[in-house]
């Protein structure tokens, strides 16, 4: 078989695959006769109502001198780690709003950070050397204030865009990277366990931007990528993605599991958030802000404890819409509230118990929002 | 009679206003003035809601008082002849006794006044503006108010104070005075309330003066333990109210910086307390403001203060104030006092020392300063001849000589007794750095953090972008070698050595591959020849050995090498085995077949151009004890990681000529630059992280000029790829206001190549016509070469492209990245552009044509 013949067959096969994919997408669209919002509206439900003091900014965490790019809560919901462009990781006590650690990083271009489930270590990753660094909070800083790196997870060939610990497992961490792959690491040895994507055909075809691991089933995780898709993976089977979710028309900037673990939300450069169902593979709902103006990219999303609310930060001034996930309506804009951020909200994080939302912004502050008044946590 | 009264006032407080008022013919002025005062007061009241602090309620009260007084004035004026300004004065003095009572409370209220003033910073401007407008509109009226205030204050010259506020805002002392005075008025009304709450928490108004409280470093507000966390928030600058964040601290509290109270320790855990105390001590807002420190009569610049604080022997307990500093000997003291300490000499801070710096009267001079009696005593006891009022020059080591003489007469602190003597007379002795090592450590930690801050301020970031193969990494390495004292550390060099050796094996492998191909070709040619010339059959056997054939032993080695390469674990095996194979490699390299192949290296497409540099020295390089030189590192591929980003902090070393020419450029040496090289991968369409580089000062885009005939894997011209990347970067919204410098790299290769391969090979350069586009050139040796023309052409192409997209000017420079001078020139140009962009308004950018880059491009 000559080379040209092989090339021809490869092209033909690629086209077949593309056709099949398009048909699949078409078929899914046909089957999608309703969405959550229509159904809920038909059931006569009304959207969540917010009073003036129902969601208030109760803490402002000041201390960073650059844009905040990422944050993560501990499991006990009392501490937050944040990563900023000033090249520092700061560990905050969310209750007193004091800093417990300020870790100076060797490289200022940090993009992501994560708290380990036991709260003893933090991980961060970014542009330099495409390494994910692990810092132990118990190790003492030398007199410069630099904390020694306890473990370097190196092996990615592109920037590390996101890192998340596997729930209830301090030894395992999943990173996503600009080299189109995700990697499951053994933190104790610093070695790769498995690589998701890359040379395999079912992997992402562009930079992977975000990872979210299911709380209820830690072997499952989803990724969002610049190839406009989100993919579902099983950590035990690295050879292929369990599912691919189409629909977005721009880079998928952020993904987040729905609290029940059977659905997940995405936020994209195309200005929409979407809700997908893992079991059926269908798109359940599109959350697109009203108005005919230019659509604003979604930077980060978070679900409330019940999943009824979807918080989404947008890439303009300080917009952070609160969506009613059932009715697909914006019920609140955090940017309109008192004490809101003064610049783009770049990251969101809901505490594990759902009692507070933390937002990080380009105005170098973090804010903690809590449900005030007599409203119970939803 | 009214004329007499003003006179008496003249005598009392010799103020200018009375002179101006001498002519009393403007009786109606004063009534008109009063409404304006009224205007002013409401403004103060309006401003007050801005303040969120607990001290809020106080400002409101003060205006009420003034309204009262003005009302009184008003009523007076209605009755009394308006001419008698003095009447009001006396009137307000009559009020003053009640205010005198408030004097008891002075301490507390002053503090409150400060609190109020600081939280009001924003509004102050407004207020002062108002004052000004009052002044400008109606001078007399303002004077009246000024007078009132002064009387209540009762200490300072009223008019001066008032004018001080109104005319120049930057004098903080005056402002504070003013605020103190204003708030001193406050308790008159508020007295019972404040008395009841004296010592209570400023937020919850609970507790008494004995309850433990934390004090704000700026405004002196006191908070009880249950309020402190709410009032001070996350304390990003230490113990300050949320509203005081960013304000300079009260100087009297400098001593307590970083000293934690028991209350905080109780409220927070150790780690948190440590963090707060650290930021409190080192954050920028809490540093000593340089302009308050006067050295030899001159206020310091921030850089000078840093120099002073970071020297080997910094002055201890530096506070705002006047100091004298003897630069030759390092003697340091408060203005008008004897020396207090000997600090590092030769620091370029403050002005020249004056003779009266320490207010001496002995007529004996040390380095131009008349010394004090105590010093003279010490000198005499130390055995220094002081007869005849000599002028001494004293160096930092204590050696002294008489002015105008060459020979050193001795060492002042040479004898042990002198030091003891100095201790008795409480005079300083030169400190030995060894004696207080711990202290030094403390200082160095301190200075480092200050340097950190300085770095923050003056670090200019330069982003270096380019397609792979454009030479960004070479430029980066070049910069490292140029501007770093130690460009590569030991272990770095070790790594680089391994990389180079692996590379060389790789090149060898490519050569061997080429050899096989050439051998096949040669054999093929030979076979056809053989078939043509049948009669030479007898020689066929011997002729099978072509020019490219090698012996069986080398053949085995080469086969094995190629196999390892194909398997992809070259990097794993070879560095370790290099010792073993070195002789074999040597033999291989010397083999005629390899040499013959090497001669045809230009036909081997994969072999990079730098390969020949290493291959020619293959034997040296592959020995185990090879140490890469800087040049080797420069040539080596793959030294900087291709996937990650690399950054380099540097400052341009100053040449002696520059220093001599322009001493004002001294500050430039403090300017630090950071060169950031980003990987070309992933820069494509989804520049996901490019907005992280929003704060860079400029972007340097590198294009390899010799790329015009090269084709990438997918068949596109590399020059067009570079153009595409260039377009996506210059049009990125983040870089809208950014300056771009285009470095057209590999000029040496272009020069050589353009003679062989026409520039029109690239479709973007179709209209390159050297004859038509002949430029006037600075080159004096007659006509410009084709290489120069090609460079100019490309520069113009890029410039037009850039301005068509952005409407701005593009800076272009050519360089040969392997030549340190040309890289230096290009980066210096980048620095110039950064400097210019700061004063853009003054410089007409359109003047800057590509010809001005020529010296930098061609002089090398």
From TrEMBL, chain B:
The keyword Cell membrane does not apply. It comes from Brassica oleracea var. oleracea. Its main location: nucleus. PROSITE patterns: G_ALPHA. Residues 82-108 are annotated as: Disordered. Its cofactor is Ca(2+). GO terms for cellular component: nucleus. Signal peptide: none annotated. InterPro entries: Gprotein_alpha_su, GproteinA_insert, P-loop_NTPase, XLG_GTP-binding. It comes from the Eukaryota. One of its GO terms (molecular function) is zinc ion binding. Keywords: Calcium, GTP-binding, Magnesium, Metal-binding, Nucleotide-binding, Nucleus, Transducer, Zinc, Zinc-finger. Pfam families: G-alpha (PF00503). It is found in: Nucleus. GO terms for biological process: G protein-coupled receptor signaling pathway. Mg(2+) binds at residues 473, 642. This is Extra-large guanine nucleotide-binding protein 1. GTP binds at residues 745-748. Belongs to the G-alpha family. XLG subfamily.
